[in-house]
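FYI - complex with nicotinamide-adenine-dinucleotide, inputs then prediction.
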Amino acid sequence: MKKHILVVPGDGIGAEVTTVGKQVLEAIAQKFGHEFTYDEALIGHVAIEATGSALPDETLTKMQAADAVLFGAVGHPKYDNDPSAKVRPEQGLLKMRKELGLYANLRPIKLFDELLDASSIKPEILRGADILFFRELTGDVYFGKRERIDEGNTAYDTMIYSKYEVERIVRKAFEAARTRSKKLCSVDKANVLESSRLWREVVQAIAPDYPDVTVEHQFIDAAAMLLIKDPKRFDVVVTGNLFGDILTDEASQIAGSMGMLASASVGDSTGVYEPIHGSAHDITGKGVANPLASILSVALLLEISFGLKEEAQMVIDAVDAALKAGFRTRDIANTNTPSDKILGTDAMGSQILQYLNS
Ligand SMILES: NC(=O)c1ccc[n+]([C@@H]2O[C@H](COP(=O)([O-])OP(=O)(O)OC[C@H]3O[C@@H](n4cnc5c(N)ncnc54)[C@H](O)[C@@H]3O)[C@@H](O)[C@H]2O)c1
Ligand SMILES: CC(C)[C@H](C(=O)O)[C@@H](O)C(=O)O
Ligand SMILES: [Mg+2]
């Protein structure tokens, strides 16, 4: 199979982990006789420094032309601590999502058995947890009108959803629920927010089209609590942009670390595959970032954009094998397990490549 992949490392550890992700893609291409070609483009802080824009036109054009995008992360402390900055790295990410029509963000929360002890949650609560989040990605308070008024002393952001935006993500979630345990949980704040009441109304209206799927509704505050109390009660979860952002960072603790969670952003055009984590300034340049989220994003890319199921499974098996052999990056190491072999980013990548090349 011939495919063209755009690698967009972005900022901080984004560059460190996508380097490994790209090596994994190439190892798969070699093993299975595919021909993958690659190009790179700028986004985020590095793009602002080079061009003044967080998403240069050239990057967007390359994204639109690619068969898939492997993305790193954006962000820089300079902007995090300067709320007045007008041009910000995160604008590049949001514009990319909007321009490419990436309205569905799939965030699988898969706990590898070997990491049962890496989480701060008790193993008996965690064992068997397997959740697939559908986070809506191009609407909500992220894209609603916002403004400073009252001479800058008051600010507002608008939480806004249209029926069609809710319907298309909810249908995707129902379809996925059909292929899993036929349970769908929709998360909103319909006891307070009008946009959530619309959300719930749409879910209720669509549900009869999927009579084989059991639907439950949870308020976001209760969902956040239940996720930690009893993660196994969830299977497919569908929610809005902001609630999905927060819940999935929380859910990363079910999988052991932010460094384990991959995601796929799909919709109207080229799919973008990226870890859910950010540029992690605190560990940038130290060579300790966990590359497994990027590697697992490669598995999603192979399966979803290219339909290469066997190849995707091999990447997951490689991660499993490395974990079974006791290899850990710092974030998933357990201080009570002296047999853990702690590796840096590249060395963990090498373990995965070794498995794929064997
Ligand atoms: N998709 C994205 O590009 C994205 C996502 C989240 C945050 N951000 C941006 O990243 C910057 C930092 O944000 P933050 O600190 O809130 O979130 P973060 O996800 O970058 O980091 C949160 C914590 O998780 C750890 N962590 C994250 N990824 C890791 C990995 N692969 N291996 C080991 N540890 C890992 C970090 O060291 C940090 O302690 C901000 O500028 C933010 O806007 C970008
Ligand atoms: C960096 C930020 C804009 C982004 C989001 O909030 O969507 C990030 O947290 C994510 O989860 O991809
Ligand atoms: Mg986030």
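The first strand starts at residue 2 and ends at 10. The pocket of 3-isopropylmalic acid (ligand 2) is lined by residues 90, 93-94, 245, 276, 278 (CB under 6 Å).
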